[in-house]
Fold each of these.
Amino acid sequence: MTARVCVLGPSGRMGRAVLDAAAGRSDVKIVAAIDREGALGLGGEAVRGVIATADLGAGLSASDVYVDFTAPDATRVAARAAIAQRKAAVIGTTGLDAVDDDAIAELASLAPVVVAANFSLGVNLLLGLARKAAEVLGPEWDAEVVEVHHRGKRDSPSGTALAIARAIAAGHGVDYDRVKRHGRDGDVGARPRGEIGVSAVRGGDVVGEHVAYFFGPAERIEIGHRASSRTIFAAGALRAAAWVVGRPPGRYSMLDVLGFAS
Ligand code: NAD
């Protein structure tokens, strides 16, 4: 079966990558593209051969599933519109807050929804490796995550860095929100045992780099991932789109799509 896909944000970096990745695939077909008023492509000129509209309801109606790499407010609006249609979704937008998460949770109670801060195979493997390392090493080894992204990235730290830090917290058996440290500035004192630090670097056109550090006495482990093309995220999201159509309602992760979930 070919899943009919509505792409949100086709004028964006990831939206264009999704349109590119869909070309030549038989498991998905792009049938609609939705962007905000004023975005490139809404004047009738095609982006990657697809003409975008601002009519979210019509775009969702024409499709089996929508793929969303936009911004938190757009993701919230799309999820609310999709609730009425019980539409399957693949959501990759990061920097979401509790209100955005509530809208996604409501949609996931009615339709199957894949949510992932990172759709690459390598990062999803890294999540498992980081959790395992934290389990084995324990909080005596100081754990830190450093991420690097292009200068246009809006949210910080990256959703992927947060997912890695949460995986480390899970490996330590602790609540992440009690041990997190996002950046350091001023007289912050000595590093408390068990803290999990996350630092963000921004510059140039870096697609995405993440390293999980584990510092032990006189030795350290680094588990890293470098993305050199958005193609990996786009291909992963389209694989998720083909996978999610027809599933029972619920919130799924990329680990479910890849068959890694225990
Ligand atoms: P971008 O700024 O290049 O593109 C954003 C797109 O969303 C544009 O087309 C824009 O017009 C559209 N948009 C923004 N606000 C909108 C609104 N209110 N209504 C309708 N459309 C709106 O951003 P990007 O680099 O493509 O990243 C988009 C999101 O995807 C970010 O949150 C980023 O962190 C995330 N991302 C996720 C992954 C992953 O694997 N999950 C990978 C890369 C990027």
Amino acid sequence: MKTIVLKIDPEHLDLEKIRIAAKIIRDNGLVAFPTETVYGLGANALVDEAVLKIFKAKRRPADNPLIVHIADKDDVNFLAEEIPSEAEKLIEKFWPGPLTLLFRKSEIVPDVTTAGLATVAIRMPSHPIAKILIEESDVPIAAPSANLAGRPSPTSAKHVLADLGGTVDAVIDGGEITYGVESTVLDLTAKPPTVLRPGPVSVEELRKIVGEVEVHPVAEAKLPAEKAVAKAPGMKHRHYAPKAKIIVVEGELERVCQKVQELADARRGSGKVGILGTRETSDRYRADVVKIMGDRKDPRTIAKNLFKLLRELDSEGVDFAVVEGIEPAGIGLAVMNRLRKAASHHIVQV
Ligand code: TXA
Ligand code: MG
């Protein structure tokens, strides 16, 4: 299959190109598109045949449910069965934006979309291209991250093409994204509401709006998900796995820096050794490859670069990488969740 690439400037939307993509969605094809978090791989969420193509293209296990994307808040009413009172407050505050909410699903959502679960994950993205694509398609769009299963999520069209070029109908290249980590997933069918995946909307912000909020052990990702009792079936799958073996070092910064260098030194000579540090610390490190994730004072910069750097470790043939942990608060919890998973939970606490 030839994948068409539609380059669109998010600030000057080219309706003609958007309509080409929307027609593909309506014809049950696959379109990858930018959202404010990561690039997604979209198909009509209400048609089995279309949704099954997503699973096939990504080589995604059929028991890992998809997020349904909408462009109008009111669409929740026909996709979800019970809308708890917290939902209204959260929607008011965070939609459109990087918060996915889990509800009991309505009849019209096919079982393939939710992997047979009784719940449906819904999100209203704020990215102008995502919004207009959903509007022009005139259907809700199921969209997981547009990577091959087990690879880091794509934060550019280039990443999407590397994983899915030739297997999807179209990729919209809308340039850079805002956050770089996937949306926060909040289960509103649990009491209290429970974060299943940390993301750009922080636990602290959620608590300000709805009071008590729990953080599921899979969201912390300190333990392998099998052990954390995957409530979210999808969460048990291995994610964000680069080819390099990764170790994350967490704790007090000075000791972290020492330990990072010590672990890198211990591997010297046995393959290519990499270190992922931060703006404030990377000068101190010596290894075959040293990369700066971002600024500790502004963890959003770290979130934004993270997946790109994990891909670079692979493309540069790094065999072993040591990563400096950051404080697991705010968007930092999302960063640490992705890093701990990329490290297959190889965490050194100092
Ligand atoms: O930011 C994002 O959320 C991106 C963009 C494209 O919107 N999408 C994304 O989708 O990250 P995906 O499929 O890569 O991750 C969705 C996560 C999976 O871990 C899945 O298991 C979980 O949400 N999920 C989806 N529906 C669920 C449900 N009904 N119950 C529990 N977990 C669910
Ligand atoms: Mg994904």
